[in-house]
Design a protein that fits this description.
Elements (H helix, E strand, L loop, with lengths): L1 H48 L5 H12 L4 E7 L2 E7 L1 H5 L2 H4 L4 H16 L5 H8 L2 H15 L2 E7 L2 E9 L1 H28 L2
Antiparallel strand pairs: 1-2, 1-4, 3-4
């Protein structure tokens, strides 16, 4: 009886390790995608925002836009306020900025393919199990990044308070960027690699 429990315990540890490794690759994929975004549009961000916004925050806004996540801009003068959304990539018109739309899918396809290749996955079901947990790490990066990428300012002019903020929409960052993108593309990359490995 105890011998029957050992294989399932070993298999449970192996599955736990696989999920943890996949989640770690998700964090890595998020970081690589951000760094590649910085390489592509870092100088454009510096020119556009100047000293008013830290470059790393401006690059983060482009990175979220590359995931189809809107950047929310809100402001208030006294008790009157409003908000709108902006897509910096669409407004940019530069070729390097437009390439950003392809960046998250390519990085995530590569992450899923890397896992499936590393683990020599040949079954599509196992490929899904290898690729889907990338979402855990990627969602953590996208959610935390949306919080830290907020920029806000408050001023008082002639006794009238003004305030403004700009940040990725948190729900969109988590659901669209953090969950949907890796579920589709990392899993897809793992499935493609599994098909290739089975030949």
């Amino acid at each position: 009886m105890s011998q029957q429990q050992r294989p399932s315990t070993a298999q449970s540890r192996s599955t736990t390790a696989s999920v943890a490794a996949s989640a770690g690759i998700g964090v890595f994929a998020g970081a690589i995608g951000y760094l590649l975004t910085y390489v592509l549009v870092g100088s454009e961000v510096s020119a556009e925002f100047g000293d008013g916004v830290a470059d790393w925050k401006g690059v983060a806004w482009y990175y979220y836009n590359a995931h189809m996540v809107d950047i929310e801009v809100s402001g208030a003068v006294g008790s009157i306020g409003g908000s709108s959304t902006v897509d910096f990539i669409a407004q940019s018109g530069s070729t390097s900025a437009t390439l950003l739309y392809a960046l998250p899918p390519i990085v995530l396809l590569g992450a899923g393919a890397l896992l499936a290749t590393q683990w020599d996955v040949t079954d599509i079901g196992d490929a899904v199990i290898a690729g889907a947990p990338v979402t855990i790490g990627y969602a953590a990066v996208m959610g935390l990044g949306a919080i830290v990428a907020e920029s806000s300012a408050e001023r008082s002019l002639f006794g009238v308070e003004t305030s403004g903020s700009i940040a990725p929409e948190l729900l969109g960052a988590i659901v669209l960027g953090g969950l949907l993108y890796p579920l589709v593309f990392a899993t897809g990359g793992a499935v493609l690699a599994a098909v290739r490995n089975s030949r």
